[in-house]
Amino acid sequence: MQKVIECVPNFSEGKDQKKIKAVADSAREIKGAKVLDVEWDKSHNRSLVTVVGSPDGVLKASFEMIKTATKLIDMNKHKGEHPRIGATDVVPFVPVSGVTLNECVELSNKLAKMVADELNIPVYMYEASAKRDDRINLADIRRGEYEGLKKEIEVNPDRKPDYGSNKMHPTAGAVVIGARKYLVAYNINLDTKDIEIAKKIAKEIREKDGGLPGVKALGFEVDGFAQVSMNLVDFEKTNFDAAFDAVKKLAEEMGIKIKNTEIYGMIPLEALVNAVKTTFRAKEFSSDQVLETRLR
Amino acid sequence: MQKVIECVPNFSEGKDQKKIKAVADSAREIKGAKVLDVEWDKSHNRSLVTVVGSPDGVLKASFEMIKTATKLIDMNKHKGEHPRIGATDVVPFVPVSGVTLNECVELSNKLAKMVADELNIPVYMYEASAKRDDRINLADIRRGEYEGLKKEIEVNPDRKPDYGSNKMHPTAGAVVIGARKYLVAYNINLDTKDIEIAKKIAKEIREKDGGLPGVKALGFEVDGFAQVSMNLVDFEKTNFDAAFDAVKKLAEEMGIKIKNTEIYGMIPLEALVNAVKTTFRAKEFSSDQVLETRLR
What we know:
homodimer; 34% helix; globular
């Protein structure tokens, strides 16, 4: 199986199309990497580039993007609603196929060293790459944002970066780098207008409240109907088919049917293959049997 | 969506590895085509090459393979258990993604014209490409095999080929070309040793006996357990998830559970996507959302 990693760096520029394009273009030039998507938000003043490719390809592509963002974005002039600490704010590596989370952790450490050594930007490691428990969550690292960290980094030993010196880059600030599992966004629309039912089901199934492992869930109203909106942060533990079954069972206990469901954004082939293996009890089924995989 | 067609030509050589390799190699040289698999059977004295690629790629690859087989295989010396009429016996084009069956029919006609004009081999069109109702089934075209057709082709107007003159190629004989839908092989193992139950279910679900459209099914004994073995010849009409549901329901009515299932060989991504759409009611889901597809 071909090794494929996804990298979705966030940059503190959501208005200037030229700069956003320049950042994405520096990834487009890299062999073994492919830019799948570029998104931006003006009020957040923030953009996001989705790159996939080989471990080496995404490593080079992410480094080149950070380099370009460092040249073009000045944090001293940046304003936006979204919390951030640097020109390149956060860089997650995500295993897609043929790669373990640990390999992504390794890759994130390689990138962090390059960024600290060659670009003089202090780096904080988060999620699976965190070197301290209080740095697993991104929000904890971003406390005080760019302006707050700038004041603290040199004087508060607790905010010493994981790579680089305890000195902000004069214009690019600092960056958070790490590895996390692939996140599948899965929504289930219920055949009821009663949002309380969606909220009740969400509470039952989410990990935080003792539900299914790797499931984050909220109840919403969407187009007048109740929706259970989920983030499956570890589809190898709880895949969309298991989430579907759990929501269906709980809904049926309250006399409610499922209207339809939606997989939002992209999903790794492995998640589809796993669903076939469990739901249709085809335990030997493998992604190698999917014709499109064989074409790569 | 990228256009992908599969072509699985059958050649009347199942013993001489050099010849089998030479035939497959002539496809390997073609840009836009990829040889996925080469199989052979000594007692059938027959080989089978699985090629996938763009319409143009598989057209060129199949032509080059036929050309090589024409040079290397002499039907006057061929003996084997499997029915055949030529050095290249049958060439089916199969839509895999982004391509309709009609496009495959067109492609099969292009190839047929090239084979008749440039290689002087008479061509019969079958399945979806058949120009006469009595040539839809391969067995009808192959009646009498190479030896029988050789005697009849020049004298019986009913056996006039669809392309080329009514004269066998001196060594390569004739060839059958056409287009058909992708065939998914799907087996369901029942938690019973009673084969009669598998046979009963197979009879209920197969199209021939009034069951599900595009389903061929037989009941077998495999490893001491009863198996419903299916060929889904039109997964857009009856996909593996629908077959699973139907077999499960019939088995449960007889108090029998499903042990496990197996998807045999390759399956197009589109079949997995369709199963997600129906079983999990994700009607908007598309293969473009599958990360691996986006990597091509």
